[in-house]
Specification:
Blueprint (H helix, E strand, L loop, with lengths): L2 E5 L7 E7 L4 E9 L5 E2 L2 E4 L4 H22 L4 E8 L8 H13 L4 E2 L8 H7 L20 H20 L8 E5 L3 H12 L3 E5 L3 H11 L2 E2 L12 E4 L8 H6 L4 E2 L12 H7 L3 E2 L2 H4 L2 H10 L7 H22 L3 H27 L1
Parallel strand pairs: 4-6, 4-7, 5-6, 8-9, 8-11, 9-10, 11-12, 12-13
Antiparallel strand pairs: 1-2, 2-3, 3-6
Helix pairs in contact: 1-12, 2-3, 4-5, 4-10, 4-11, 10-11, 11-12
Bound molecules: nicotinamide-adenine-dinucleotide.
Length: 359
Amino acid sequence: MTELREETPPEGFERLVRIEDPESGLRGFICIHSTACGPAAGGCRMWPYDSPEAARRDVLRLAEGMTHKNALADIGLGGGKAVIIGDPATDKSAALLRAFGRAVEALGGQYYTAEDVGISTDDMAQAAMETPYAVGLGSGRYASGDPSPFTAEGVFQCMKAGADEVFGTDELTGRRVLVQGLGHVGMALAGKLHAAGAKLIVSDLDRAVLDRAMRDLGATICPPDAIFDQEMDIFAPCALGGILTHDTADKLTARLVCGAANNQLASAGVAETLRAAGIRYLPDYVVNAGGIISIAGEIHRSDDWNREARLTTISRRIRDILATSRTSGKTTIAVANDMVDGILAKAANDARREREGLE
Ligand code: NAD
């Protein structure tokens, strides 16, 4: 039986639940950071965390990030996340995924789960046997399928908005763009950049994808440890988080950073280093929201969720963020965080007034 144990969440978080199913080996957490804008939504990550404390820290950080992402994407959803402790290559089983599905079901729709690192569409289908609150499915009436093409399109549109601000034109023809990570999102983004006439520099650990980019997209290859030695106009981090440190920010030749990777800034202070160096950083959680915008149609069970039209929300946000950053002197991430605070305060106020109106 899946057990749920409530833990006291830190201030500012709505709910933290420890989940366990001894039979299948399920151990993890579900965190609901905020339901101010709607039911919480965010993926489930499976990772061999060193300790339950490490998993707990991660779920809190990720759930809060989803509140930010979903608020600015304007999709009527709050922020939450789940983590499962274990190695997805060896510890995953149908029983474990179904036990996880039962834990999500027990929250009664307060939290919608989907794929994240270590969890595939097929895994979600197992969880969905126990709950309608598991989404990102490959088939079914409202199934939204692979979110990566939408994420890539959102990044591309934001990059054009950023180029407009930095270079005075959103044309990418002839711009040198370095794409780090040619996975689901990075390769799709590289294809769009090639079609737009950009000069591609690419980096990955996988030789096969590099060869493909060289052959099909005329890309130049850069070794993973030489990224910050390259001359480039735009840097698109599409691999892992933490790539921008004080040190790498100092070396970066790009004037614009716009990519899909989550948590690109190794620490909050790096935003100021980038700003001081005249580099515009487009906040990752705004830029990479295309995937959750696509999945939101499935959550809302909408027949007319116009994903393409909704995607334009994020490049409009980016234009607003850049304009406010320019006039206020604040970093782009500080401006984005202020916008989130405003949206959450308004949502809380609206809910209070509705309650009072009903009383
Ligand atoms: P993916 O696993 O398909 O691709 C990641 C790629 O990065 C792989 O090809 C890998 O070999 C490469 N890589 C890893 N370390 C590298 C390094 N040091 N140097 C160069 N390349 C390296 O992942 P994805 O789905 O394309 O997602 C990319 C990033 O975007 C992740 O950070 C993810 O969290 C984020 N993101 C993805 C989506 C989505 O819709 N898939 C949505 C939001 C955010």
